[in-house]
Design brief:
4 helices, binds zinc ion, OB fold (Dihydrolipoamide Acetyltransferase, E2P), alpha+beta, flat
Length: 166
Amino acid sequence: MEATETVLCTLLAVDLTDYCYRVCSRCQRVLPSDKNGVTSSSLCQFCKSKEPKLLYRILMSIATDTSVKTVICFDRVATVLFGCSADEFFHFTKLNPLTASMVNQVFDGEMLRVTLTRPHNRNAQHMRVASIVPLRSGFQPAIVTLREIFTKNASLGSCSITNHNL
Ligand SMILES: [Zn+2]
């Protein structure tokens, strides 16, 4: 029996320094990768497929009414918050280099109901998020808000690379 708890919390921050990892899209095995998860060989050693895909693995800080915790979100749950696949998000960050710094502004203070699971693996440092429910009625996934911001910037003719006012 896994120990789970459901809590109401505020999202404080997501860590985008290392937020995804690569798997083989055919056999789902994790592919070895460098720190950025992208530049090493995309050939799967097991099934010889050359079609990797990215999955989310994100650390985030949440505040409950009693404590602040760092928890880990895997692909299915992270997709709820981001609104797109890790591949799409990765591509978006390449086109819009300010994405990483803006994600935390987009998410800042978002109210969530999360179910946390304590991993079986005792070496695992963080509780993992088994499910997530955004509570704010106007909630929209990060990619929707980010697209709106970048589209607006583009139409204003401002250079998004140097605009740090947002
Ligand atoms: Zn494979």
